[in-house]
Amino acid sequence: MLKTLLYINEDLASSIALRYTAYLNKFVPLSLFITHVEEPDEKEQVGTGWVRHTWEDGVASSGKRLIDRMLRTENIDCPLAGRPKVFVGDREKEITYELRNGMYKLFVEGYLNTADPDQFYEVISSPLYTKAPCPMLVVKNLSISKKCALLCADSVDPRDLVEKSMEILGDSTFSFDIVFFKFNENEKLKTLDRAEGGSHLQETESLLAKAGKSVEDVIVLSGTPEQVGDHLRDYALVASTLPSRKSMRMYVLANSLASVLLVR
Amino acid sequence: MSEQTSILILDDEPIVSKRLRPSLEKKGYEVETFTASADALKRVRERQFDIVVTDLKMEGVDGMQFLTEVKSLYPDTEVIVITGFATMATAKESFNKGVFDFLAKPFKLGEIAEVIAKAEAKIKKS
Amino acid sequence: MKILVALDAKDYSRKIVKDVARLAENTLADIVFLGVQEKTNEPAKTLVSALLKYQSDVYSYFSSDELPYAEFSSDQWQEKAKGDWSLSTRGMKEFTLRIRTGSVAKQAITVAKELECDLIILGCSSKFGCEWDGEMNVPLRVAEDAPCSVLVIKQARNANQIVSILDQSVVKQDSLEMVNQLVTLHDAGLKIVGVKEKKESKNDEIEHRMVELLKYYNDREVGAWVKLVDSDNVKEYVTNSSREAIVALWMGGKQSLIKKLFSRSMVDKLLETTKSALLILR
Hints:
The structure holds three protein chains of three kinds.
Chain A: E1 2-7, H1 12-24, E2 30-38, H2 49-74, E3 85-88, H3 91-101, E4 106-110, H4 117-124, H5 127-130, E5 136-139, E6 147-152, H6 158-169, E7 175-183, E8 190-192, H7 198-210, E9 215-223, H8 225-231, E10 237-241, H9 248-255, E11 259-263
Parallel strand pairs in A: 1-2, 1-4, 2-3, 4-5, 6-7, 6-10, 7-9, 10-11
Antiparallel strand pairs in A: 5-11, 8-9
Helix pairs in contact in A: 4-9, 6-7, 8-9
Chain B: E1 6-10, H1 14-26, E2 30-34, H2 37-46, E3 51-55, H3 63-73, E4 78-83, H4 88-96, E5 101-104, H5 109-125
Parallel strand pairs in B: 1-2, 1-3, 3-4, 4-5
Helix pairs in contact in B: 2-3
Chain C: E1 2-7, H1 11-14, H2 17-27, E2 30-37, H3 45-61, E3 78-81, E4 84-90, E5 94-101, H4 104-114, E6 119-123, H5 138-145, E7 149-153, E8 161-166, H6 173-186, E9 189-196, H7 200-219, E10 224-230, H8 234-242, E11 246-250, H9 257-261, H10 264-273, E12 277-281
Parallel strand pairs in C: 1-2, 1-6, 2-5, 6-7, 8-9, 8-11, 9-10, 11-12
Antiparallel strand pairs in C: 3-4, 4-5, 7-12
Helix pairs in contact in C: 2-3, 4-5, 8-10
């Protein structure tokens, strides 16, 4: 069972994330914990000692009610491993602390998919992601797919990609494709010969075989990030290493209609 | 069977029953509506309806399973399929199972009322 | 479902018949083929033979034991009114040939209203504005006043994606169902694109609608994905999408943002760039 922390807010992104996580659980058995952070305005924060403690309890209860409402509304078919965890404070700090403290293997949160790649970059370049102790799953859409893709490019270290992805997906019942991305401003997305993927692609394939996973398809795609991102829609998720800058691969992940698993 | 023709409508989108029910009741039919196939299945096991109108794509027991059950319980019941995701294959399968008609959504109330009237005429003739 | 197909003897009409046949095969719809001609006292021979040829092409798409339409017992056209002829047959479903005089756009709208059609289908020449034998902007003029959704087919080809553009307007059940039939016909995925307004307050409604639709399709195991696009970029986004996908525009009420964004010239441009079809939803 993969110890997983799912972040929930009372918003549509979380509503998608909840449903998606229940779907993911069918393929990767999860030991699922839910968390929410109440971030009070500075003006709202009152007193010290007992007064502050009582006020924090009040804020935390309202967070618990929020999670209850979300769980009731979505009525998800995925048992929780423990009581929802509600914290009061800075969202990123609290989640990072909980991820480390609880030794989670995976963090999941919803993201309302936009065509603006900068918004996506803002999320994945935040300290929550860059300093995360575990892989992070950005849920962009729901899925009915039984397949995952490992997204490679020249900038991706095959060992990191395969080893870290398999820590999450190794015991799953998903089937796997390897997608190698090459940027090109074609009018249409092109599929190239496998040899165009070079040694990185070969290594990814052999590492995956060593991990006991057979690859269903190896695809070398040449096109724009928008075209490739669209093409990735038929996967339940796309795994890749966390981009450290605004590279073309980052733009592919930003444009991916499928949810994105970021490993480091 | 009473004089009044009885109709069961099963569609997981509530708006369909909401539109159909008043219009059919106004025409003198006895109408029961369901949005969950399990509930509709329970009801048809309790009593026979003259006409069953069912959607195909639904969670749980899908429309094809439902209409198969209806036809096996009551071969005389006329089944009308309504579907938002129509294919030749589902139409063919429906007719093989003995459905009276197959309507793709969207349709006007007049269209389904006409089909129901024909099904009713067939029942009364036999 | 009742489908009105506006046709003439030109190539852009001939090209759409296969798609019409596929849709008829899937939906077992009642079909009306409408031809429009100049004012004369009888149906023009070229138009009559074109409509009969198209009808026979649709029939030949079905195997004989699956044809839901009856054969035409005679070719005696009935004059319903002055300049309005009809030839109809009824099997399990109805097939009608209709010829009227006047403007194509006006007659298509009139007949669609009279027969309470659920969809109007028409072809589009590759000329600017989809000129129909001297009549400009036919698809667009039909779409503006049609009582139902309008499918403009440029090329009969399979699209693997339907891109549905959504604003804050109410999504009508009929329109949703029409999208569903297209998704099924093409065995395509559905991308639901929400247009983000500059006014943040209106976006909640759009986002809410998008997510509801996403869940609706997910429940029915139909591949669907959401994406939010800024109103400033939506024209470019849609134009690019129209190259490969079928674009479905929900042109809702008077306040429709899409209606404001997609002026006549913009829809013309979309019709120019699309390689498959454009669905204008009411």
